[in-house]
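Hi R.,

Here's the chain you asked about this morning:
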Amino acid sequence: MPTTAIDTAAGPDTAGSGGITITDPRTGEVLWTVPEAAPEAVNHAVEVARRATPEWAATAPEDRGAALKAAARALDTAAQELAGLNASETGRPVEEALAGIGAAVSTLEQYAELAPVHRGHSLRGNRLAADYTVAEPRGVAVLLTPWNDPVAVACGLIGAALATGNTVIHKPSERCPRLGEALGEVLAPAFPPGVFLTVSGGAGVGALLSQSEVDVLAHVGSSASGARIARAGALTGAHVIRENGGNDPLLVDRDVDPAWAAEQAAIGSFSNSGQICTAVERIYVHRDIAEDFTAALRAEAARRNADGSVAPLVDTRMRDAVHAQVSEALAAGAAAVEGGELPAGPGSFYPATVLVGCTARMQVMTEETFGPVAPVQVVDTFDDGLRLACSGKYGLAATVLSSNIAHIQQAVAALPVGTVKVNAVFGGAPGGAAQPRGDSGAGFGYGPELLDEFSQVKVVHIAAPPAPPAGQGRP
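And the predicted structure, written out as tokens:
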């Protein structure tokens, strides 16, 4: 079902030659097939958004904020329906989906409040002149968003882009297309026609949008896709914002309680079945507590597997990719003390898995796994663990569990990541924004700084005119 202003504006049929078939991650049954946007529809969406840009950019910031507040109210009203679609398409438990939608409502409300106060800066110059900067919208923003927290992540980008006066074309993940379309149907009525559009499709539609003459490309997803989008932006001149894959390390020092550290590791590795960009992907534990830590982590995983709290992965393709990494590690000498085997039965379930005997060359330690897998490597010293934690091509986040302030400060200074978390795998103050490094992306992805990413700055210098010639007064 096509979505929002693309439907109501005169234009070509949005249906492409193919469709996106979604299966239930819990049962494997086919749920529905959603049409993909045809190339003509993608081009038409860009044209519609471009036409709507001048008027939306000229809209008073407080009015843009009011529209965002209306969108937040509509989203809150539709939360239960959207959470059900989220659960159906991705397997995420309804309670967790509702929490994500609640976070999305709050994010829209926050950007609604920030819209009127996002401003430039005064500059120090000649006392008889005025120097300042003005923040202006970039234009048409294409937002390519993921499936693992689809509403919260999308609304972060949507809120910041619209608050700053850009028009938006949103392409939700092809793994949750009906949810993406429903989100568009909920939000679009809060804005003038053409300001917020939704286009459904897979990688081909995303490529067409990335190659279009737009002004911003914002992407949250895999590093491979992010690299392609960055190359496309370099050719078109679009400003690119990317939060991409991670291989986040957890460094466990010798002076912490191993049971508590194992609980933190389990939260970081198994929450949302490991399908979180900032999930714990590799663990370095000091040899002095390694045995107790591993036993406690195994118990944490076993409990989750026994009580059925590990939700399925989004689809069998993801499960196959996760199991391939686990199998490679096992073949290379690692051991699965819990999990590690494909379960019988329907759906795309994968057990919480603890691997021991891991080495730095295994894929589970070098690549993003994106599944409920906790690979453990024992280290002899904190310095050895920190050196390994600093290795690799990703730079999203890292966690340090330690009571040694010198080790903590050493890690904060050395870790080449956008976010360092100390003694808590998740959490942090609201509004935090970080810049990922390496293959994990570039640009601020959250917080007030995201408003700057969607803006371009104009410097203004106003000088006093020269004094009139003697004997001539000013008019």
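DSSP finds 16 helices and 19 strands in the chain.

Let me know if you need anything else.
M.
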